[in-house]
Write a structure and sequence with these properties.
One of its GO terms (biological process) is 2-oxoglutarate metabolic process. 33% of the residues lie in helices and 25% in strands. The chain is an alpha/beta fold. The strands form 5 sheets. Strands 1, 2, 3, 4, 5, 6 and 17 form a 7-stranded mixed beta sheet that branches. Strands 8-15-9-10-11 form a 5-stranded parallel beta sheet. It starts with a strand and ends in a 7-residue tail after the last helix. Bound molecules: flavin-adenine dinucleotide (FAD).
Length: 480
Amino acid sequence: PQGDIHADIVVLGAGPGGYTAAFRAADLGKNVVLIERYSTLGGVCLNVGCIPSKALLHVAKVITDAEETAQQGIAFAKPGIEIDKLRGWKESIIGKLTKGLTGLAKQRKVKVVRGTGRFTSPNMIEVETSDGKKTVSFEHCIIAAGSAAARIPGFPYDDPRIIDSTGALKLESIPKRMLIIGGGIIGLEMATVYDALGSRISVVELMDQLIPGADADLIRPLHKRIQKRYEAIYLKTKVTRIEALQEGLRVTFEGSSEGGGPEGTGAPEPQVYDRILMAVGRRPNGREIGAEKAGIAVNERGFIPVDKQLRTNVSHIFAIGDIAGEPMLAHKASHEGKLAAEIIAGGEKMKSAAFDARAIPSVAYTDPEIAWMGLTETEAKKQGIEIEKAVFPWAVSGRALAMARDEGMTKLILDKKTRRILGAGIVGINAGELISETVLGLEMGADMEDIGLTIHPHPTLSETVFFAAEIAEGTITDLY
Ligand code: FAD
């Protein structure tokens, strides 16, 4: 049956996965409907994720850099923080980008339907719009409904002093004492922002290191730096209770005897905080879209399993981005979105196309930044893969020293036999920018000689990748 609107392709959710898929499909001549429940396009990433967090991190970096130049003989006064103006600036960036997306959708004649969509059958979605229900029938569908902040059950979430990343990015006020539950990327990025703005930060993490997915040597420089700046970092520690009191949120901890508390003393005593940021991961929205009505399988975590072509178990319905599995990153979502659109529009021609990324880089935009891609040392060990590693410490990089930030390091992980790059990890300022060269190297099958014979400009941080390759080859002749 035809719906109120009929589309060749309907895309459910307008985040980086969804809008990329919709635009690509329209460019390939398809009649596309994009369903989105938020008032603006761009999804989590543009509205309450990647972009606003990076805007605030930029300001945080300016503040801490200004504090630290005192060591080079240049002292600035304490910054005056106008929080309304800062919030306004951040909002203006989101505004520019989301307006841009609306324009791009219009140009391509992508029809945007505002409202919450749910499947009613394998070929129909019903959208709850501000003026009633609308049905959209389709030949193909791309589900790009993303994820939401996860919660540990049992805490008093109706208290506005407990926030998630969306609440933290609203920047309503600067709390005096703030606890971040979860020492992953999102928690630590928000910690970086609020620390620079003047909050006293504590971080509590269940595992034995911050950012548990990354190699321990990459985390060390970050840990060392924030340990000096923050009030406390509790590892191997769990929050068991939060009581909403008038004077603040009273938190009870439970920690392992080796290394939970401040000095490895077990769990700390209960503490009272002004604000708590819950940053314990993201939950895919697989259970919120009526998937069962279309016969789409959803796994126990709420992800929608897909094959190499990004097809769900229902062959004309695809899923991409956060809802389709880890890593939950914007650049993975957009690459998948583009491919799904091309596979649908390409028909026979794209029969053997597949999502086949050799590596998807991860970046924590903390200070220092941490970036990694491909195989990690931990994974190599676990999988019994014979690797060699080459580490270039930034303490001998002229550029890092000239920037007064020599705590970083660049590590290449290579195949012992072929000498090809298998993975890389970088910690230091701008690590997120520097990692791309190693991803290209991996995608192109570069070996250490390829990288070591490529002339890099001097003096740059990008040279550290080349120096690491020279270390691997035993051909290094000059440092600094
Ligand atoms: P989303 O961006 O989640 O978009 C899904 C869209 O679908 C949403 O707009 C939602 O409203 C809509 N939707 C859902 N259900 C329905 C429905 N039933 N009907 C209609 N619409 C619906 N990633 C990075 O790569 N780099 C970063 O620096 C980074 N920083 C981040 C910082 C924070 C604080 C957070 C929370 C995330 C960050 N991420 C980052 C992750 C990134 O935001 C996600 O990986 C990315 O947004 C996923 O894109 P997506 O298209 O899959 O889904």
